[in-house]
């Protein structure tokens, strides 16, 4: 029997995060004050001070979480990296607003396409080489978000939203959205308790086929998803470690034998390909897992971005409750 692998590597999992990967009740929307017209200086995830004018309207977003944060504070981005991908992976939890121009991929945005939009601001995320910012900064001010930090995943997400709000003169809208999000999680936690699900161990994971082998990407402690489902009363069943930014690990199918017998596996994918119901159906290790034998494997609805903002995470919490609640 091959040796189990419970692996984590920052470079690998960050690359996977960039390449990847319905609600029962939407969080309440609140009115907020008009955006400030005064300029501001913010400090972004690079530790760099960025001077910004007031009245920012035209913004390009180079990561999907940046798109969501902008929409949350009331800005429809004029440019978005990989529009089609956003609509597939994030369009249910945080539907794309407006008709933004596609500015290339998230890993290789088109400088020409961005320059053609003459934006007031470009919002990106940490992880690019320092030299990559120069071409963007020649077009417009660039604010870099942290995007993820396994030391404080929910706090990092909320702080990034605040940074977007501050940079665009819409900090009040960001604070209102954060308060609504926190209130929504409290409400969902009550639903989880009423359903008798509090303390249920969950393991969220992605599955990929790579060269004929199935690779599993589990969300360890420090990932945003476990942080959210722990807030509403579930427990993270995955025992392995993740990388320091996204909290993601890598394992093989045999590594899943480390899961407790009463764990529930939850996952999400886009489109027809589903390794959990295709490649793994003939894998004896997978089919022999107690959680699989008990029917405790749940595919969540497509289109909720797993590295998103308050709307995506609210939709994720709702989807979990819907998937795990006992049927009448």
Automatic annotation (TrEMBL):
Keywords: Signal, Transport. The keyword Transport applies. Pfam families: Peripla_BP_2 (PF01497). Residues 58-328 form the Fe/B12 periplasmic-binding domain. Residues 1-19 form the signal peptide. Its main location: other. It is found in: Cell envelope. InterPro entries: ABC_transptr_periplasmic_BD, Bact_iron-sidero_bind. CDD domains: FhuD. Coiled coil: none annotated. Belongs to the bacterial solute-binding protein 8 family. PANTHER family: IRON III DICITRATE-BINDING PERIPLASMIC PROTEIN (PTHR30532), IRON(3+)-HYDROXAMATE-BINDING PROTEIN FHUD (PTHR30532:SF1). This is ABC transporter substrate-binding protein.
């Amino acid at each position: 029997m091959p040796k189990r692998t419970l692996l984590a590597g920052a470079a690998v999992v960050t690359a996977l995060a960039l390449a990847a990967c319905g609600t029962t009740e939407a969080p309440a929307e609140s009115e907020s004050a008009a955006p400030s017209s005064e300029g501001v200086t913010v400090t972004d995830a690079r530790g760099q001070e960025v001077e910004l004018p007031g009245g920012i309207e035209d913004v390009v977003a180079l990561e999907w979480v940046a798109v969501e944060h902008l929409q949350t504070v009331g800005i429809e981005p004029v440019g978005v990296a990989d529009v089609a991908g956003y609509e597939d992976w994030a369009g249910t939890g945080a539907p794309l607003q407006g008709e933004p121009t596609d500015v290339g991929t998230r890993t290789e945005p088109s400088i020409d396409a961005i320059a053609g939009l003459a934006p007031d601001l470009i919002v990106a995320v940490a992880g690019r080489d320092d030299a990559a910012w120069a071409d963007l900064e020649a077009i417009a001010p660039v604010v870099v978000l942290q995007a993820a930090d396994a030391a404080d995943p929910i706090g990092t997400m909320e702080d990034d939203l605040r940074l977007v709000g501050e940079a665009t003169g819409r900090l009040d809208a960001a604070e209102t959205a954060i308060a609504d999000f926190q209130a929504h999680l409290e409400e969902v936690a009550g639903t989880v308790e009423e359903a008798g699900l509090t303390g249920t161990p969950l393991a969220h994971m992605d599955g990929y086929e790579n060269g004929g082998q199935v690779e599993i990407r589990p969300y360890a402690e420090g990932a945003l998803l476990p942080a959210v489902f722990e807030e509403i009363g579930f427990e993270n069943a995955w025992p392995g470690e993740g990388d320091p930014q996204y909290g993601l690990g890598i394992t093989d199918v045999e590594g899943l034998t480390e899961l407790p017998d009463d764990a529930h596996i939850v996952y999400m994918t886009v489109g027809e390909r589903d390794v959990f119901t295709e490649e793994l159906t003939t894998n004896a290790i997978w089919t022999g897992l107690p959680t699989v034998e008990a029917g405790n494997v749940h595919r969540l609805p497509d289109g909720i971005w797993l590295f998103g903002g308050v709307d995506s995470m609210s939709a994720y919490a709702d989807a979990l409750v819907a998937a795990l609640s006992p049927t009448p």
